[in-house]
């Protein structure tokens, strides 16, 4: 694999040592070009062909299906992962005494809406690891990779425990999709959401989520609009009565989509499929391993190993101050909850790790 040629697809890397994909992924030239093409076509065609954009989006659903091994009809788009999770939690008929389980130190998305359900008598339970579930668990909310420390729970095991308890599993794949392989058919979540601006290297506003046909039968849309009726393509004669919801996951979209962002995301996904998801995962984990070894040599304590996110701390160093000093040298990492967080993607190389070592 010619990683140098692939790296050239990311212009920001010419001027920065960027090791912070867990905050923002760098946008490849081809993704920006796809978004620009969409705007140019809008000008040239005066947007008269806007229904064709939805045909393109259906093709992109199939492309995402290839990435995570699911059917195109099971994919819907949202503005961000918070919107997807709000749909999930907001559509469940909660009863007093129900429990929602998450992992300790999860991303705030997994806390905020769940904690607000306390007014209905719903308890949010935080666990260090999930190897059993408390009574009356209705839903489990976890990330495939923890944003602050790199912890990778066994999503397959959690899925088994969740469904054995008669509960629903919501997985947030924002910190793994695009870096680590994920197979919907193996893990079997009820809902899997990915905000594409991180490891998927997409523009903002290109969030997708997978939702099972079974859950679609009971989970009501949180947004209702002109595309909530299955006859929405007949724009000359739109239904003015009670909407008849489409069976596919698009029932949750309601209206217009962020087409430019979705076109851009499609190009990033095509690039990843061309490289190979197994090749990308191997590259990401190898760079993370080399980063881990380098940081260990400085006396740092590693929080979790074998992850795409490397989180470390030193007993006599302030991670936030250190991250700011590194940024002043055009080396971008992050600080999260006392840890210095380094998150290399496949566009990074060993020279980036060496520059970080020298700066430290």
Can you summarize the main beta sheet? 7 strands, mixed
The CATH class of the largest domain is Alpha Beta
Q: What is the beta-strand fraction?
A: 5-15%
Report the total helices: 12
Strand order of the largest sheet: 2-8-7-6-5-3-4
Classify the secondary structure makeup into a structural class: alpha/beta
Radius of gyration: 21 Å
Q: Percent range for helical residues?
A: 25-40%
List unreliable stretches of 5+ residues: none
CATH superfamily of the largest domain: Type I PLP-dependent aspartate aminotransferase-like (Major domain)
The number of distinct structural domains comes to: 2
Number of strands: 13
Main traits of this protein?
single chain, 360 residues, alpha/beta, Aspartate Aminotransferase, domain 2, Aspartate Aminotransferase, domain 1, seven-stranded mixed sheet, four-stranded antiparallel sheet, 13 strands, 14% strand, globular
Please tell me about this protein's structure:
By secondary structure, the chain is α/β, with parallel strands linked by helices. The chain has helices spanning 3-7, 29-45, 50-68, 81-90, 109-116, 155-164, 184-187, 213-216, 259-275, 277-297, 319-328, 350-359; strands at 17-18, 75-78, 99-103, 123-127, 137-143, 168-172, 191-194, 207-211, 301-302, 310-313, 331-332, 334-336, 339-342. The strands form 3 sheets. A 7-stranded mixed beta sheet has the order 2-8-7-6-5-3-4, with helices on both faces. Helix 10 packs parallel to helix 12. The longest helix is centred in the last third of the chain and has 21 residues, at 277-297. The mean pLDDT is 97.
């Amino acid at each position: 694999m010619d990683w140098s040629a692939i790296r050239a697809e990311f212009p920001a890397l010419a001027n920065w040592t960027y090791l912070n994909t867990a905050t923002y992924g760098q946008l490849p030239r081809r993704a920006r070009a796809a978004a620009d093409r969409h705007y140019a076509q809008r000008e040239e065609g005066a947007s008269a062909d806007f229904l064709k954009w939805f045909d393109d989006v259906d093709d992109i659903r199939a492309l995402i299906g290839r990435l995570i091994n699911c059917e195109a009809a099971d994919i819907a788009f949202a503005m961000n992962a918070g919107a997807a999770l709000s749909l999930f939690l907001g559509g469940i008929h909660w009863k007093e005494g129900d429990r929602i389980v998450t992992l300790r130190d999860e991303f705030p998305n997994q806390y905020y809406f769940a904690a607000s359900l306390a007014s209905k008598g719903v308890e949010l339970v935080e666990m260090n690891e999930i190897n059993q579930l408390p009574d009356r668990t209705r839903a489990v909310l976890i990330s495939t990779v923890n944003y602050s420390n790199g912890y990778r729970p066994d999503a397959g095991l959690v899925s088994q425990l969740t469904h054995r308890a008669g509960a629903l599993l919501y997985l947030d794949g924002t910190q793994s999709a695009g870096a680590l392989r994920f197979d919907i058919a193996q893990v079997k979540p009820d809902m899997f959401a990915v905000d594409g601006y991180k490891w998927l290297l997409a523009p903002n506003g290109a969030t997708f989520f997978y939702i099972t046909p079974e859950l679609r039968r009971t989970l009501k849309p949180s947004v209702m609009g002109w595309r909530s009726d299955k006859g929405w393509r007949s724009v000359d004669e739109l239904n003015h009565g009670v909407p008849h919801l489409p069976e596919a996951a698009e029932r949750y979209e309601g209206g217009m989509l962020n087409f430019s962002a979705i076109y851009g995301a499609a190009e990033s996904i095509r690039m990843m499929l061309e490289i190979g998801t197994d090749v990308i995962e191997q590259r990401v984990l190898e760079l993370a391993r080399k980063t881990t070894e380098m940081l260990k040599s400085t006396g740092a304590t590693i929080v979790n190993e074998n992850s795409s996110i490397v989180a470390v701390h030193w007993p006599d160093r302030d991670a936030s101050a250190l991250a700011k000093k590194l940024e002043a040298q055009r080396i971008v990492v992050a600080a999260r909850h006392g840890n210095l967080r380094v998150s290399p993607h496949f566009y990074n190389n060993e020279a980036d790790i060496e520059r970080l070592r020298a700066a430290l």
